[in-house]
């Protein structure tokens, strides 16, 4: 059975996985590459990735030959698929919620997680950020890549409207934040902000699709949509919402540091 058949098929990311889409983070590979480059992964680094999914970013990280790489994934089935795809490389897997990894204090030089916080309620967002802080060494870096809202002065009514439409489209209670909002979630747990980068929410736009997936895969995705009206309906609904809110919704990556004197 394919992974998406085992998961809650209603959720937007599994709808896109069923379509054949591999890049499921809002800013695409471009923003992932920015985040990985800012983390400046070295052969001396112990790395922890939260919610690695099927391991796309893990491959970029492993290409830098860190001292160690640990994946923390909550879903056993996804973890199994990750193992099959990443094998036979040296990776450690922990099946756990990223808010309670069971890893020791100060064990990591760099921690990152993509496309996971947006879909969680604020309490769980904070708990995961706190866990990243706990497992990082002083001076260590934490990277996130999530859905953003802009500008920082966006009125609350518009924020509510975007969140409602997004939750309807991806059938998960998604709460994106502005750059200031995400930064506050990080600084409230003790982090310092090192860098912020934004990209437009072009997850389902042709140019980004080709850049992320390659033309042959995009053609396959197109035919899957053509012959599956239900799938097509869901994908089109998501694209409509992304386009409707293009002026207020984007993709954001933030690099934060655990202060050295911690
Ligand atoms: C949308 S996918 C993102 C996967 C990957 N980071 C990416 O960008 O392609 C969400 C993944 O995060 C995992 N996940 C969600 N919440 C989690 C949590 N609290 N702890 C660990 N994994 C989690 C899910 O099981 C799923 O594999």
**What can be said about the biggest beta sheet?**
8 strands, mixed
The geometry reads as: globular
Give the structural class. Answer: alpha/beta
Residue share in β-strands = 15-25%
Bound molecules: S-adenosylmethionine
Q: Which stretches are low in confidence, meaning pLDDT under 50 for 5 or more residues running?
A: 1-7
Please compute the radius of gyration using only Cα atoms: 18 Å
Q: Give the terminus-to-terminus CA distance.
A: 46 Å
Mean pLDDT figure: 93
In sequence order, what are the helices and strands, one letter per element? HHHEHEHEEHEHEHEHHHE
Based on DSSP secondary structure assignment, what is the total number of beta strands? 8
Number of helices: 11
Share of residues in helices: 40-55%
Task: Describe what you observe in this structure.
There is one protein chain. By secondary structure, this protein is an alpha/beta fold. 45% of the residues lie in helices and 21% in strands. The chain has helices spanning 3-6, 12-19, 28-39, 56-62, 76-86, 122-135, 156-170, 179-188, 206-213, 215-227, 229-244; strands at 46-50, 68-73, 92-95, 108-114, 136-149, 177-178, 192-200, 249-257. Strands 1, 2, 3, 4, 5, 6, 7 and 8 form an eight-stranded mixed beta sheet that branches. Helix 5 (76-86) links the parallel strand 2 and strand 3 (92-95). Helix 2 (12-19) packs across helix 11 and helix 10 (215-227) packs across helix 11. The longest helix is centred in the C-terminal third of the chain and has 16 residues, at 229-244. The radius of gyration is 18 Å and the shape is globular. The protein starts with a helix and ends in a 5-residue tail after the last strand. The model is unreliable at 1-7 (pLDDT under 50). It binds S-adenosylmethionine. S-adenosylmethionine is lined by residues 13, 24-25, 50-53, 56, 72-75, 78, 97-98, 114-116. S-adenosylmethionine (SAM) binds at residues 13, 24-25, 50-53, 56, 72-75, 78, 97-98, 114-116.
